[in-house]
Amino acid sequence: MRRPGTSLLLLSGLLCGPALAAAGDGPPAASKPARPPMPKIDRPILFDTPEADRILAALQVFPPDNPWNEDISGRPIHPSSGKIIASIGADKPLAFNSDMGFILIPPNQKRVPVALGEYPGESDRGPYPIPDNAPVEGWPMNGESLASHQRGGEGDRHVVVVDPVNRKLYELYRGRKTDRGWTADQASIFDLASNRLRPDGWTSTDAAGLPIFPAVVRFDELERGRVEHAMRFTVRRSRRAYVYPATHFASARKDEDLPRMGERFRLRKDFDVSGFSPHTRAILQGLKTYGMMVADNGGDWRISVAPDRRIVGLDDELRRVKGRDFEVVVPSGPREGSVTAPPAGR
């Protein structure tokens, strides 16, 4: 959902980065197994296939020290954690949207122009390597043919295209295929080999200025039994502020008990995950280790899951987790603190 713009920005509430990090750092994360070689990719491959699983197992999404890959299990709890959680709903259940499909493309995928609508000044210059069979958010769960859904329907209509060989990510907001080609209200390019953020004040296909693909829960990682990255989630009401690594806010509200874009939550360490099925348990353990970030306005406590028919058990199990089972952590990185709108009259 969108989305008040930001033009003039004020950096406020800065904390001392190195001192804060030292206070909250836990033990070093266990080393991860080496990734297999990248398979050859000679055609576009949809997300819900064994071919995609093999490619994703080989793909390093952002460097290991990127915020999405940060182990936050040892970060200090935010002083207003309880109030922020209450503003979302301590008794509301964790939920999910099976909505964020994506497509993996070969390194020589043909590039096409994208006509930009609402946010051309905060979009990255194309052309974009979008294949003819690129999925649009909401498919295939809506039961429509892909060709029909590419052209019709409402909503955010995210389009997510991943080039694993060149480690590039291409995302569209309100993407639509027309007789003249692809259109979008916003288009973003991310370098999956870099920690570079979008410019301060810039949105992305997500209201927070964050990428979507690195945050989506996928079948291949659930099958391995571990989600090793932060997840994205939405809240109905957010604050007119953002915090690292977000770059954009999407609200006019100034209540300090509301979460900022980029606000990071983790599942409490003492939450018992032993009674959950393997796919759900992989998500919950990931939420303990890597947490989840506020990425957009929408339904409360809703994480994004790839619409993969092979994922099982989430419908009946995630709802057993409530808002009160989470805690807000102090953000880490080069820019703690918060970016907000300037005071009235400026």
Structure overview:
This protein has 346 residues and is α+β, with helices and mostly antiparallel strands. It contains seven helices and 17 strands. The protein has a six-stranded mixed beta sheet with strand order 3-15-11-14-13-16. A hairpin with a 4-residue loop joins strand 6 and strand 7. The chain is globular, with a radius of gyration of 19 Å. It starts with 9 loop residues before the first strand and ends in a 6-residue tail after the last strand. The C terminus is likely disordered.
Helix/strand structural class = alpha+beta
Helix content: 10-25%
Total count of helical runs of at least 4 residues: 7
The number of E-state strands comes to: 17
Distinctive features:
alpha+beta, 17 strands, globular, 6-stranded mixed β-sheet, 346 residues
Brief digest:
By secondary structure, the chain is an alpha+beta fold. It has 7 helices and 17 strands.
Which secondary structure elements does this structure contain, and how are they paired or packed?
Layout: E1 10-12, H1 17-24, E2 45-46, H2 50-58, H3 81-88, E3 95-98, E4 103-104, E5 114-116, H4 146-151, E6 159-163, E7 168-173, E8 176-178, E9 181-184, E10 186-191, H5 219-224, E11 231-235, E12 241-242, E13 264-267, H6 278-289, E14 292-297, E15 302-305, H7 314-317, E16 326-328, E17 338-340
